[in-house]
Amino acid sequence: MPDVTKTATAAVEDAIAPPTVGPPPAAKQDKARSLWGDAWADLRRNPYFIVSSVLIALLLLISAWPTLFTGASPTAGDLVHHFLGKPELSKIGSAEWLGYDQQGRSVYARLIHGTRASVTVGIAVTAIVTIIGGVMGMIAGYFGGWVDVVLSRLTDVFFGIPFLLGAMVVLQAFVERTVWVVVFALAFLGWTQITRVMRGAVITVKQADYVHAAKALGAGTTRILFRHILPNAMAPVIVVATIALGGYISAEATLSYLGLGLAAPTVSWGVDISAGVAQIRVAPHVLLWPSIMLSITVLAFIMLGEAVRNALDPKLR
Questions:
Q1: Engineered SS bond to 287: which of 42, 158, 276, 308, CB 3.0-4.6 Å?
Q2: pLDDT of the residue at 5
Q3: pTM more than 0.85
Q4: What's the alpha-carbon Rg for the chain, to the nearest Å?
Q5: Which residues pair with 100 in a beta bridge?
Q6: 62 confidence band (pLDDT: 50, 70, 90)
Q7: Helix 47-64 vs helix 285-312: angle between axes, to the nearest 10 degrees?
Q8: Phi (first) and psi of residue 100, to 5 degrees
């Protein structure tokens, strides 16, 4: 028979004994994120970024492999059977889907193949002006003094030239206006805005404590510029460049419409818009579809730029 007194005593001792206190569970800490990490987290939740990214990805796919979307030739015409043929919207993806132009060419095929010229011009001009303007703005903002004065006055001279008017004058010097000639004309005058933005960003960043610390530790100018200043000054430049990309595509179409940009046999939306104006009363579809495609493309890049701006600017969060 168990000892009732010892059992009761043990129960009382267990009740009044202080509980064993172990080390508290480690609190889970959130991993610190950089400006780019926060921006990416915001972009993934932004519907404008998602929609614009899907559209731009589709445009890049079309420009890279147009034959995936149509097997029709954009230059082969049949005046006898297809002169200003009306769209047959029920035949999605076929040559006659969006109708035919005044030379009997498939509007849909020209729409698909014309994507390459427009997107190439926009991306190439943006890349060139970002590199040129970024380097000049970084040098002017970091060194200051007479270097800043010379580069700033040079920027002001080019900035004072009307963009489209200057591009028209430059293009007049070329007999054959190919895609890369148009890229050169637009890049020749388009770097000024990036230069100003980069210069202002560098002037702000170079006052930061980590830049002074890098100088005190003996870091060279090249290391300071590309390791400390450039990554922290690129945010506004990326925003401006992304928004400007759509503007360069629109500028190419405008120059082609005026007969000073791309010309046949190059397939371009601007060329088709220019040719379609004469047929607007009898066959509006020749003008309508390339205009819609151009508008969607420009809108996609502007939406992307706005989404990036909202994500990189802490004041807009």
A1: 276
A2: 47
A3: no
A4: 30
A5: 106
A6: very high
A7: 130
A8: -130, 155
Of how many residues is the chain composed?
317
Distance spanning both ends of the chain, measured CA to CA: 75
DSSP assignment string, 86-155:
PP-TTSTTSTTTT-B-TTS-BHHHHHHHHHHHHHHHHHHHHHHHHHHHHHHHHHHHHH-HHHHHHHHHHH
With contact defined as beta carbons under 8 Å apart, do 155 and 196 qualify?
A: yes
Write the single-letter amino acid at 65.
W
Phi, psi of 303 (to 5 degrees): -60, -40
Q: What is the dihedral of CA 179, 182, 187, 189, to 10 degrees?
A: 180
- Res 299: pLDDT: 92
CA distances to 72, 110, 119 from 270, rounded to whole Å, are 20, 11, 12
Nearest 5°: phi and psi at 8?
-65, -40
pLDDT tier, 17 (very low <50, low <70, confident <90, very high otherwise): very low
Q: DSSP 3-state assignment of 81?
A: helix
Mean pLDDT score of the chain: 84
